[in-house]
Amino acid sequence: MARARVIIDREFCKGCALCTYACPKKILVISSDFNSRGYYPVTVQDVEKCIGCGFCAQVCPDVAITVYRE
Amino acid sequence: MARARVIIDREFCKGCALCTYACPKKILVISSDFNSRGYYPVTVQDVEKCIGCGFCAQVCPDVAITVYRE
Amino acid sequence: MEVVFKRPRTLLKKPFTYCPGCHHGLAQRLIAEVIDELNIADRTIGVGPIGCSVYIYEFIDVDFVVGAHGRAPAIATGIKRALPDCVVFSYQGDGDIAAIGTSEIIHVANRGELITAFFVNNAVFGMTGGQMAPTTLVGQKTKTTPFGRNPEVHGFPFRLGECLSVAEGSAYIARVALTRPQFIRQAKECIRKAFLAQIEQKGFALVEILSPCPTNWGMSPKEAVDWLEQHMIPYFPLGELKVKECLSRETS
Amino acid sequence: MEVVFKRPRTLLKKPFTYCPGCHHGLAQRLIAEVIDELNIADRTIGVGPIGCSVYIYEFIDVDFVVGAHGRAPAIATGIKRALPDCVVFSYQGDGDIAAIGTSEIIHVANRGELITAFFVNNAVFGMTGGQMAPTTLVGQKTKTTPFGRNPEVHGFPFRLGECLSVAEGSAYIARVALTRPQFIRQAKECIRKAFLAQIEQKGFALVEILSPCPTNWGMSPKEAVDWLEQHMIPYFPLGELKVKECLSRETS
Amino acid sequence: MKHHEILIAGFGGQGILFLGRTLALAGMFEGYEVSWYPSYGPEMRGGTANCTVIVSEEEIGATISDHPDICIVMNEPSFHRFVPLVRPKGLLVVNTSLVRTHCPREDLEVLPVPANDLARVYLNGAEVTNTIILGALLARCPVVCRKSAEWALAEALRGKRESLYTLNLKALGVGWEFVAKGG
Amino acid sequence: MKHHEILIAGFGGQGILFLGRTLALAGMFEGYEVSWYPSYGPEMRGGTANCTVIVSEEEIGATISDHPDICIVMNEPSFHRFVPLVRPKGLLVVNTSLVRTHCPREDLEVLPVPANDLARVYLNGAEVTNTIILGALLARCPVVCRKSAEWALAEALRGKRESLYTLNLKALGVGWEFVAKGG
Amino acid sequence: MEKVLMRGNEAVAEAAVRAGCRLYFGYPITPQNEISEYLSFRLPQVGGVFLQAESEVAAIHMIYGAASTGARVMTSSSGPGISLMQEGLSSLAAAELPCVVVNMSRGGPGVGNIQPAQSDYFQAVKGGGHGDYRLIVLAPSTVQELVDLTYRAFYLADKYRNPVEILGDGMLGQMMEPVVFRDPEFPPLPPKDWAVRGKGNGPRKWIVCFDLDPKGLEELNLRLWRKYRRLEEEEVDYVTFGCSEPEVLLVGFGTVGRILRSVVREGEKEGLKLALFRPITLFPFPKKALQEYARKARAVLVVEMNLGQMLEDVELAVRGEVPVFFLGHTGGVIPTVEEVLEYIHFLLAKEVRVWK
Amino acid sequence: MEKVLMRGNEAVAEAAVRAGCRLYFGYPITPQNEISEYLSFRLPQVGGVFLQAESEVAAIHMIYGAASTGARVMTSSSGPGISLMQEGLSSLAAAELPCVVVNMSRGGPGVGNIQPAQSDYFQAVKGGGHGDYRLIVLAPSTVQELVDLTYRAFYLADKYRNPVEILGDGMLGQMMEPVVFRDPEFPPLPPKDWAVRGKGNGPRKWIVCFDLDPKGLEELNLRLWRKYRRLEEEEVDYVTFGCSEPEVLLVGFGTVGRILRSVVREGEKEGLKLALFRPITLFPFPKKALQEYARKARAVLVVEMNLGQMLEDVELAVRGEVPVFFLGHTGGVIPTVEEVLEYIHFLLAKEVRVWK
Ligand SMILES: Cc1ncc(C[n+]2csc(CCOP(=O)(O)OP(=O)(O)O)c2C)c(N)n1
Ligand SMILES: Cc1ncc(C[n+]2csc(CCOP(=O)(O)OP(=O)(O)O)c2C)c(N)n1
Ligand code: SF4
Ligand code: SF4
Ligand code: SF4
Ligand code: SF4
Ligand code: SF4
Ligand code: SF4
Ligand SMILES: [Mg+2]
Ligand SMILES: [Mg+2]
After folding, report:
1. With 50 as the cut, is the pLDDT of residue H356 above it?
2. CB contact under 8 A, F36 and G5
3. What CATH number should be reported for the domain holding residue H80?
4. Domains of chain F, earliest start first
5. Does the pLDDT of residue H273 top 70, yes or no?
6. Does the pLDDT of residue C252 top 60, yes or no?
7. Are both G224 and G331 inside the same structural domain?
8. Residue B6 contacts D, CB cutoff 8 Å
9. Could you tell me if the ipTM is greater than 0.90?
10. What is the residue-wise DSSP string for chain D?
11. Which of C204, E27, G309, H59 might form a disulfide with E34, Cβ 3.0–4.6 angstroms?
12. Atom of ligand 4 nearest to the CA of A63
């Protein structure tokens, strides 16, 4: 069971990918489907691996990520 | 015989008296008679004592003094 | 589940208008977080720039004034003198603060005006499409330095923080970057101190925030943060440049 | 008889328009002397200020341009860029250079513009009748600081020389006074170096000249020079503030 | 009398302005009055771009158009913003690779071009969707003739790599063929 | 109809502006329209000062006067500059302690007052030549009456040392007496 | 009420304080320095703020900031300094911020000189900055009026949320005249609920001077336009003096207005039928009133200390119905009663030609 | 000659280089950035100087310095930046220094927006700075004219020793049109013997922009005044188009001028008798010519991208002889052919009332 959870707001995300580099677990990836503003938002690939470190959210310039932990 | 000479342009002098303080020989004094612009120019009181050091001319803000030396 | 990270209360819930990878949003989030933590949103007045972040008042949920390009420090002075009990902060880009607004920021520092200034240095005029800024690095190509900045012609990159540190009225000057989580933590602490310098009446405070402009640098967001770390930080070293008395020096 | 001291060739033979005891005349005489000695009068262009010395072009026998208050550095930049072989110098008061013209002088220094700037600091706006200047000392009474300059309200006296020394483009920055013969000798040497910095293409050069304003200080000329030595020099220490490479450091 | 007002809209990176300029150049080569006018300013921060090209036999007044007779939309947001403005009976060229919505207006002639897919299939995914669309447009509506468009590409790419020109020439053909062969 | 245009000129340190202001105040106390207008600006660098006072029964238009009917000159340079401007038949008050030149105009009434000498003799050399001159003027030409001038001095010196007022009152008397007693 | 002899510059400063102005930002420039010198001791006495700015550009933006808080604020300068404020004034007008700006104008162009002039009329009245904005412009002609119009300036600024310029000149600023400070009575003003003071418990507010959307910016411009039309209807002010059916109607503002008053009086003595029309509000300009007065005259003579600026507004008002003549001086030269009279005689001697 | 498709901003820059401009100083502002961007690589190619100034204030004074040496110099900006240059422009005019200033104007007031507008007309034409000076103001309406008027601007600046403003707008600056660079032919100019270049062996020279003596400053002002009258006699320029005895004479400059051309053409198709009067020189304004054209029309309709600025000059020219109407948009909204036609129909439907 996931000890942490990451929620990405698809409409806020601009697909800059900065979070993907910041994630120590490398579980964030850019999706191939664009949002209503034409950006390709990021998604969590393997949510089980998330440790809730919050790095992704810290570096996200668009404040598109919320992070929860047990 | 004077070994040095100081010439003061009465019309350039504004009587600020700065030269009188600079003169090591204290031979410069403000005259009691004003010039055409209404200033009381300085005069040399005892030209024999002048050593031609040029201090008076150096400090004169109005470049009113010329100094000669043997 | 406990929240590890969520949007600060004072940051309004709408998408930023900046390009992907631009750090203007990040900087504004940190300011909002500190405002939340210090609990000063009700008495804070922000002063916005003309530049990419001209819409800052749409994002941070406090009262705002935005005037002409470069004049935020003067505007902030007017506000602070009228309302000394308010917390007044300004937010400016490098063109705004270090080109057209040079005089205003220097004299605000010199007067020790009790305001907190944020200076987002992206080494370029973002809003107008990428012209040389006073902070453009030597050799950097911009729209108006097509062959790269040449100090003999265009002068040297201007270190505003160092210049303001000379002013007697400045109490706190720091330079930060937001390219890594630990930098972001330090930045937030500096932002906090910069607000405290005002609240505790120490004097003028400024935090210079190095920031990427992927759009005008012609890079991907990742390339841009890397370039920032490799090229900007060496010329614009991070850290606290000035901490006047009373203010503790270490960054947590 | 040998001439120990006479009016320099480049100083036109007419009485100055300054008040008794004002050092504007003295400063201009030294500039004229150096122009004579370097034999550059034929290719020198001066840029005058708006301030008590607005009539400088009436006294120094070189080509001159005088424009708006505070903009001499920008004007000098325009001239030098158009005529790189000319020697261009500017001459400004503290209001001109350190208040309204702050931005221009800082960016000229930062660009390393090849011009030589003279800054006559008399701690007051002379021409307009004695208002506070950026360089007015703490406690000093002026027309607009009737209770004395209070840093909490009016800010601190601004040390422009120190501020410009931070700029990478400045090659030579010195501060001098003209209250004694030996100071005057040193000042002249600094003025010489400041011209040479331009001629030898080292970068921007500035000489700050502390100067009394007996009229607006409400003192006799002698009291004024004494006050200058006692109060101004401690806050605005004399000496060479910056000497970039190649330029020899000692003052003869 | 020939008079076309063409609005071209899409993402910043899709070569919208280039497409417009090529079209205007071609018009100029054919001796028409032409104008090209971009959207400009901080709007670009939003990532969208558009421009208006007018090709006319008469001197051109306004260089913008409230009601273009030809509209090229290269992405979804542009579709929503600009389709309502097109003149009745106008021609709407849609990059269907990136626009999912179906055109709600009955009074328009719609030319669907799956430009990204065409690029993937025929051009190895090269970023020339703009020129593909141009080819398609010209095959449907001869604003200018194909030859002029080719010259225009040469002019617009002057000083660039030769291969870029060849690639665009190909892309023009891909778009053209797509329509000529009946889409 | 009473209407006086009075020009007062001399060195910066001679209290020219004060003299003018006192006169204007006195006029105001007597219910006249009055104005006071100084020379201003970098001219002062030259060390001279002058001002124009108008005392009139009518509203005052220009507050300067090209041809004053009363002119007070307190030093030599002012004498040369202003004497030519005085209205024919006008009154010229001269501080003869500092002005050596003899008035070349025959059409003026000249009132010589050796103000510095009077100050030296009667007032221990105190710097009140301006008020002495005022006293002299009023004794010759009642622009305002002496009493008003005394009130005006009180007003002009409000907030200053009492002794300064007394001194000026005395000076006014010295000037007055000098003229009243026939100079 | 006590009559005091006061310098124009000091009178305007004192009137500002009495009108409730508590913040002043400005940069020295002759011939208006006494305004700041006076306020530098007077404002602290009443708990106000006097701050000498580093430049006029800074000063006008300090005004922008302080005005945003709803405070009554003032700056003052002269020609060159006012030019430097043009961007700021345009911004203040765009943001609809009330403030008072005093221009004791001097000889121009450029650094010019420091003697009285009226050559900043166009700048003041047509909007020297960019964009379709206007300042409310008031032109006093005596020290008393300087005081009364200063009160009014603050009132109008608040009422219309618009910057107000008091257009004086070196002569007005430097001269002393007797003056009485009468407590002004104005209708109550609406609360400044737009002011930015920290949101407290209420909704947040902001003040900006742009709208990147053309429709929105046009809306702002139309709102300003309606305000200016309302000003023309409600706030026009002028005085007239002299003959009701004059041969020549003199038109002049400020300092020239008082000189022309003497001209009318002197002219009367010489048997001339003259009248004076002196606009007090230069914007809104008293167009209609002037047109009516002009119709009763054989000719109009505009006198200014410039080379013909208000002249254009007079011509626009008179609309060719009566010939309009002009006499001007500039650079600090002040027209004299004699020369104006001489010119009138000259005009009347010739058959007055139709305005061409 | 080769026809090229060029952006207005780049065309003006290229034309400046061809006109011999070798120094440019400016500060970025939309919508004219392409001017500096183009010159930043183009000027070095020809041994010239491109320098991005730290502000518009600095830029205009760099211009002052460089112009003093007799060099051909240019700066460019838009609304807010031009406002910041007002003191400098007044100084340049006072010192009689030639230079060219391009204003690609945008929506105002304040920061406004960056879309096309014409609301800087007053500022350009009446002198937004202090003092009695004027700029020569040219208003191009196509990219070709932008080029041709840039050549002319440098010529006029030198001929009259006066700053020249090219008043364009965002649309002109941003759009591309075909353009030909024709070698201009102008009469020879006098040598710049007033220029400051180091005295060498000759007598020294100086350039200043003040005269503390009122008489001297008045003399300067009168010299300028004579220059402006000469401009009105020799340099007025305009184009007309359409019917020779129109029902409605349309008047518009720059971008609006080209739109009105379409209006005339479209109107013809609908049977309307229309004509266009498009001033090319805004100062000197083609007063007399306009008056003559207006006399032949039943009504005059002024259209501007502002709320009525050139309108005043039109009214001053028409002098009430023909009714004058106005249609304006502002803030970046561009008038359309349709709405102008609609308004004309509306005017013609009603009996055209006399101009009131
Ligand atoms: C007086 C004036 N000059 C120029 C401009 C144009 N302008 C708008 S923003 C800007 C600079 C933007 O750069 P910066 O301050 O670095 O902010 P960024 O967009 O990079 O965050 C400029 C020059 C303006 N709005 N006003
Ligand atoms: C734009 C502008 N603002 C203000 C002034 C008025 N002014 C003239 S000189 C001066 C300052 C003079 O002081 P400073 O530069 O220190 O020279 P000083 O007279 O003391 O030598 C000022 C404010 C002006 N001429 N132009
Ligand atoms: S919280 Fe940490 S581990 Fe989880 S997605 Fe974000 S960066 Fe990766
Ligand atoms: S950092 Fe934020 S905006 Fe960028 S891809 Fe990740 S979630 Fe999206
Ligand atoms: S030269 Fe020396 S000794 Fe002679 S008068 Fe001057 S200061 Fe005195
Ligand atoms: S220093 Fe010069 S001006 Fe002063 S008193 Fe001596 S000679 Fe005269
Ligand atoms: S242009 Fe640069 S600074 Fe502006 S929003 Fe985009 S990335 Fe950020
Ligand atoms: S006022 Fe001061 S600075 Fe000016 S001339 Fe007089 S003493 Fe010198
Ligand atoms: Mg930037
Ligand atoms: Mg000074």
Report:
1. no
2. yes
3. 3.40.50.970
4. 3-180 (3.40.920.10)
5. yes
6. no
7. no
8. no
9. yes
10. -EEEE---TTB-SS---SPTT-THHHHHHHHHHHHHHHT-GGGEEEEE-SSGGGGGGGTB-SEEEE-STT-HHHHHHHHHHH-TTSEEEEEEEHHIIIIITHHHHHHHHHHT-S-EEEEEE-SEETTTTSEE-TTPPTT--BTTBTT---HHHH-PPP-HHHHHHTSTTEEEEEEEE-SSHHHHHHHHHHHHHHHHHHHTT--EEEEEEE---HHHHT--HHHHHHHIIIIIHHHS--EEEEE-TTS-----
11. E27
12. 2
